[in-house]
Amino acid sequence: MVIALLLGMVVVRMDISARRESFLVQARTMHAALSRHAAQHDAMLATLALLGPDKRSGARVPAIYPQILAALRRDSGGWEQPGLEAAEAISRQARRPEPAGFNPLNRRYFLVLAADPTSHALHIDVGQLIGAGDWPIGNDPAMQIHLVHHSEHMVLQRGLPDPLQPFGLTEGFVFEKQLHSTSQPFTLRILRPTGPADWPWRWLAAIGIAMGVLVAAVKTGIDNWRARQRAESLLRIGQVARLNTLGELAGGMAHELNQPLSAVITNAQAAQRLLDDDPPEVDAARGAMAQAAAQGRRAAVVVARLRRRVETPAMAADIQPVLLDAVVARVLHLLEPELTKLAVRVSTDYDHLSARADVVALEQIVHNLLTNAMHSLDGVNPASRQLWVVAAPEMGHAVLTVTDNGPGLSEEALLRCFEPFYTTRPDGLGLGLSLCAALAESMHGQLSVRNDPPRGAQFRLQLPLAAQ
Predict the structure, then answer these.
(1) Whole-model pTM?
(2) Binning pLDDT at 50, 70 and 90, where does residue 272 land?
(3) How far is the C-alpha of 274 from the C-alpha of 232, rounded, in Å?
């Protein structure tokens, strides 16, 4: 209710501000039009004075300008209309036209210009100016429009009677400005009463209804969220039953041992082919067997670490200073055949940054992140497949990011990718990223993910920075 009231107040204030601005724009337009007409009157008199004794020139003016009732002249003698002689005297002294003969009832006045040998005067009907199509607000019945000259007021539009004004709490919008004319220094005064009757009640009603619907929707959403939380709690209980000690150890061992054992097999097969050549390539075969032995030792370390993790969790990680570029280089070397096969280009940017980590665990995390990044590029044009591996210090931490230019992750995947058994791949176990997150935590680090448009997904590994 309070939010609806505050929102309604904002809407009312915005509506009043918009109507005030519209009123001022229209009032300035009317002021400019009246000033332009006043300048036209001066120009007409100046033209008639130049034409001098030509009586036909003044006769054509009312036919061209509907606000001019008559163009008068005085060759000799006096004016027939009262007050024009005094205005002529003032005009002769000031050397400009002078208004006279104001009639507020019928909204008319004279404009006199003294000249030799003939003086001229225009009889002007301001009401005809109102109907000339220049008035953007003249059709608003609530608008009060006055043209003021000293104490004389010509009412161009009366507006609504006070009892009929729309709940006007104040005098409303006011515009008051003198015309840009030295001969006709009239002040245009426009008043527009306003109040609650002018408020956008349809919008306010719509806001009230919308807030009611929103409150109902929020309540329904909260109820659904609570029900979903209960269901997820029950699901987690079921998952915990599956993630017993033996199951977690078996799954972790299978996942972690798969990569070094695959490397052992690959290198052993390569050594066998090299030895079968005629003549055998003994040095290359020795290199392949050395790689196989190194990966076998890595598998042994994995098994030992997993065993320590079960027996003494606090001793699971062998934390030491590790060069990130060396770890990344070893993993990229291991993945080089697959990267070449998939035509994936890798860009690296690191400068001998050292982090406190477990070497085997860190290699496992980097291997998983790069493998997942490669798989995310299956739907990308081979000519455009790209990975970025960047390491940089950040507020006492070493941060390693792996970014791809694939399609990115869905909102669900962003929220659940580190959950055990959650996977988006048909052949995946859903343990890789879960295990990586657990390994990062065991090294007092953190693994996070976000989408990085327009590239794709970015995984961010944060580890403690080692002393340089």
Answers:
(1) 0.43
(2) confident
(3) 55
